[in-house]
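Run log, item B.
One chain of 185 residues. Sequence copied directly from the ordering sheet:
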Amino acid sequence: NGFYSIEVESYSSNVVIGFTLIWAFMNAILISTKAYREDDFTFVANRLSYNFSNILFIITISTVGAVTAFLSNGIIQIVVYFTSDVEFFLTLGESVEPFHHGLGLVSTFLYVLLFAITGYLIGMMVQVSKLFLLLIPICLFAIGYLEQGGFGFGEIVGFYFLEQSFPLFVIKSLITILICGSLAI
């Protein structure tokens, strides 16, 4: 009626989760480098135990990163509440059941682990042959080029990120994680 103005702002931890995915990917590549392999030489007996210890480390950092990123939503809301001049603050998270928060946390963990194990696989491929430094970007460019033909990044992203069934998403993610981990070993 001209007397009231409503402005709606939404805050979420999606950006934090995105940066966590990049962080996990880069850390997984980093631990596969020659310098880290030489640092582990005094502690690790053979290549199999080296890879298993790295995968356990990746699982650990994925857990810490996923929990931290998932719970950052509350911190973001608290900071916004105390630093802005909001007259009415409504959180939509209060209506969500704890079970759904658990599903969100598991999903975040699986995404972070998926990105980390993919980074570890790429790092191990580069350690096997420096030719992969050239082949991996060419393959990514080819997949992006095939986007025009109906297959590309959109289908790959949709395969994981647009899955409606949680059990099917878990199965897809775990199978991909196991395949990438096995190839890295």
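Observations after the first pass:
- The CA atoms of residues 25 and 114 lie 9 Å apart.
- The first helix runs from residue 14 to 30.
Flagged for discussion on Thursday.
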